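so my prof wants the structure for this chain in the tokens format not the other one, which i didnt know existed until like an hour ago. anyway here's the sequence
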Amino acid sequence: MHKFAGSVDPHRRDFHPLKASIQLCGSGDADEALWLLFLTIHFGQDVPETIRLFYGRLGVGCWHWETVRRHPEVLQNWMRTNRKRLRKLKFGNHRKRRIMDPEHERGTWAVIRSFLDWVAEHGKGSPKRAFDKCVDDALDAGNAFDRLYAMLDILDFGRTARFDLLCLLGNLRIFSLSPPHCYLSGATGPRQGALLMVTGRRDSKFESEFDQTVSELTAFLGVPMEAMEDALCNWQKRRKSKRSPEQLGYLSSCS
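here's what i got, hopefully its the right format
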């Protein structure tokens, strides 16, 4: 079982959303845990202060799942009232282009509203029931991941957000989920990393078999698929050094 330092109280500065989510699941409140994890991915795992302040209603109360589900307009009005304070909150590195404005068609409120609609459609108001519906008769953890990835139709939850959320749910052992591949066709950074690794160029044409090549390499190395996905993203970032990959000691399939 994963152990995280910090508090489960969103009104304390050392609040850790993952620790809180695990405790919520352990106490039988999976719906609240999944709601908190949804917010964690929406804002970004690397901005716990934003997650803490939003979930903890800027220090006054907490936006619990049942409150939001039953009275979504209260959350929207709260965001309008606290627009200036909320605008100062930062999104994470993978969520840089997200928008806090409650009136924006792709803002945080619109994303939450979309999540509420998805849960209502698939789980009749219960996030746990919605996820269970997608994975109960899955063949294995990879098939469950693939099915959820396809069914998680939430506004502004593109390839990265879906991949990160499902990997998180699997790694926290909330559901039996494991990515069967890196989903490179819809990626940006990891896709360019795969192109660079396989062809030596970022701007090459992406071929469907590249995903299989990456999967085979991942299995050979014995690393988790999400670790390979992250490595590919880092691989394609431009280095300050102007030396070639060969000079830096990297292997290339094109050499």
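also thought this was worth mentioning. The chain has two domains: 17-171, 184-248.
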